[in-house]
């Protein structure tokens, strides 16, 4: 009859190895769905540009309040043919329906949400993002930003 004799040190060694392997396995299983942020940019050479909706408010000497809305930044530059995702975050104002002049692009930016607008212009020129809710001074505007394509 044969017996397996384990010393205390041998048993602790195998227990430690088991804990290490279980920890490594758990770490890989929990991280399986994550992707590195810096690799996000290489999505077929698509550049990301971030824009926000901004409100400026002041009170006049006569007590009247003035407010105006704008896109920030007010101007962005692209290269002709460049692929861009424009991320617009709604910070101020409940909603901003917009269109991009000279294109068929339309959308709405809502407060607390982010709207993603894919852009690629084949012609050089200046294209304006115009908010339909704030299109002129009588509507707390004009809320216009320029997309300059070189």
TrEMBL record:
Record bears the keyword Chloroplast: no
Record SUPFAM superfamilies: Cupredoxins (SSF49503)
UniProt KW keywords: Membrane, Transmembrane, Transmembrane helix
The organism's place on the tree of life at top rank: Bacteria
Transmembrane intervals: 12-30
Signal peptide interval: none
Keyword Phosphoprotein on entry: no
InterPro entries per record: Cupredoxin, EfeO_Cupredoxin
Protein name according to UniProt: Cupredoxin domain-containing protein
Organism expressing this protein natively: Neobacillus novalis
